[in-house]
Amino acid sequence: MNDVDATLAALADPTRRKVIDLLRDRPRAAGELAQAVQMSAPALSRHLRVLRAGGLVRAETGGEDARLRVYTLCPEPFTALQAWLDQVQAFWAEQLGSFKNHVERGR
Question: What does DSSP assign to residue 93?
């Protein structure tokens, strides 16, 4: 699986997308994320594991309490996804431009 595939797979679930949206504002503790998405900590832990495996988020221990994990976004997967989307958009813009020229020549 390439990087874009891993990113899309991680973002396929609405709960994980909600976590990403929450982390866009600021880093958050796992418990705060669980409360925000109205999910138990163990259930959210599975989603966070997928996001970490996809490289979309990273966890750091929160100071004195080694059990506290604070999650932040990793920009690299989103940059790679945006580059791929830009390529797809450029392809379709070229295709539509060619079609427009074809139609106009036929008039």
Answer: H
Q: Residue 28 carries which side chain, given as an amino acid letter?
A: R
pTM over 0.85: no
Q: What is the pLDDT of residues 7-30, one digit of tens each?
A: 999 999 999 999 999 999 999 999
Distance in angstroms (rounded) separating the CA atoms of residues 76 and 6: 12
- The type of residue at 60 is E
Report the half-sphere exposure of 10 (CA within 13 A, side-chain side).
Answer: 24
**Cα→Cα distances 79→51, 55, 82, Å:** 16, 12, 5
CA 82/CA 21 separation, integer angstroms: 16
Alpha helices (H) in 1-107, listed in sequence order: 3-11, 14-25, 30-36, 41-53, 75-106
Backbone angles phi, psi at 25, to 5 degrees: -75, -45
* pLDDT tens sequence across 66-106: 778 999 999 999 898 898 999 888 888 777 877 777 788 87
